[in-house]
Design goal:
By secondary structure, the chain is an all-beta fold. Strands 6-3-2-1-7-8 form a six-stranded antiparallel sheet, with no helix packed on it. Strands 4-5 form a two-stranded antiparallel ribbon. β2 and β3 form a beta hairpin. The two termini are about 30 Å apart.
Length: about 110
Amino acid sequence: MMSKVKFHVRKGDTVKIIGGNDKGKTGKVLEVNTTKYRAIVEGANMITKHVKPSAENPEGGIQETEAAIHLSNLKVVDPSSGEPTRIGRKKNADGKLQRYSKKSGEFITNG
């Protein structure tokens, strides 16, 4: 049985890209692929895709879409300061583990 791995990035988080061609850009995480350790960030790492005409898309042509970025190149943005921060986990008032910003100590709410 495989244990569930917890990542510092979740769907809906605002992240800053710290490496690669789009270094410095910020965006919202649209999707996280846990098996490949990658995430799709809104408006970042854009690629052009040639689409063949079909019944739904009779025009076909070239579409721009976001490609996945490795999780090591992403840092979650601190909700209070707007700066990238490392993530920790500690128990909240209800005794449930929750992610928090290592910079400000503030809990990170998803979305």
